[in-house]
Amino acid sequence: MVTIILDLIYPKTCGMCGKTYSTYLCPKCNLKLKTLLNKKQIHYPKEKYFDEFMYIFKYENEIRQKIIDYKFNKKSYLYKFFSQLIIYNYFNSIDTYDIILPVPINKKGLLLRGYNQASLISKEIAKNIYSLEFSNKILVKQRETLKQSTLKKTQREQNVKNAFAVVNNNKIKDKSIILFDDIYTTGNTTNECSRILKEAGAKKILVFTIAKD
Ligand SMILES: [Zn+2]
């Protein structure tokens, strides 16, 4: 009943086309997006601290614009759309994991934007997958970093080195972890996060991102 009333006050709209619908992704857009999904699904990178990598889209065209809107154009509500898209299409790939952790962002960025874009989506995914726990208190940033996109490839590794910390090792010891971020570019940030998560006892890490640049 409460849900019905809430739906009347705040009608859901499709994150892609903006039409009012009963969920945040209408069937028409879901069908269209399905054709853009990364078909290969899981990658097994060598020489990385994470074990698996999965991204949904290439960082281009309408998806690129959607992510920019979400991150920079005050459209925080799009987290519902992105999480729904992930749950619809990747449920079987992620429901075997124990915990989902968002990649932390700089304090300055958080203050400016008001939210961590990866955190909102991760939290919503965990809310819908019973066995998956969410935390943004375990993996934290211990110093500010420069924007990776402003740096040369050789500087990126150094920029994030020792920038993260694990607060509670017990929470992740022997656990299968999804490390969630919005965009994967060189993978330096997620790799550095994975390094300290593995040091803290994580069993297995899947890096999951919306897009790959
Ligand atoms: Zn739509």
Task: Describe the model.
The radius of gyration is 17 Å and the shape is globular. By secondary structure, the chain is α/β, with parallel strands linked by helices. Helix 4 (78-94) packs across helix 6. The chain has helices at residues 2-9, 27-34, 61-72, 78-94, 107-113, 117-128, 153-160, 169-172, 188-199; strands spanning 52-58, 99-102, 133-134, 139-141, 164-166, 176-184, 204-212. The strands form two sheets. Strands 1-7-6-2-3 form a five-stranded parallel beta sheet. Strands 4-5 form a two-stranded antiparallel sheet. The mean pLDDT is 91. Helices cover 41% and strands 17% of the residues. The protein is built from nine helices and seven strands, in the order H-H-E-H-H-E-H-H-E-E-H-E-H-E-H-E. It folds into two domains: 1-35, no CATH class; 37-212, Rossmann fold (3-Layer(aba) Sandwich), CATH 3.40.50. Bound molecules: zinc ion. Residues 14, 16-17, 19, 26, 28-29 line the site of zinc ion. Zinc ion binds at residues 14, 16-17, 19, 26, 28-29.
Strand-residue fraction? 15-25%
Q: What is the level 1 CATH name of the largest domain? A: Alpha Beta
> What percent of residues adopt helix (DSSP H or I)?
40-55%
Sheet with the most strands? 5 strands, parallel
- Small-molecule components bound: zinc ion
Q: Got a strand count?
A: 7
Number of helical elements: 9
Amino- and carboxy-terminal Cα gap: 43 Å
Supply the CATH architecture of the largest domain. Answer: 3-Layer(aba) Sandwich
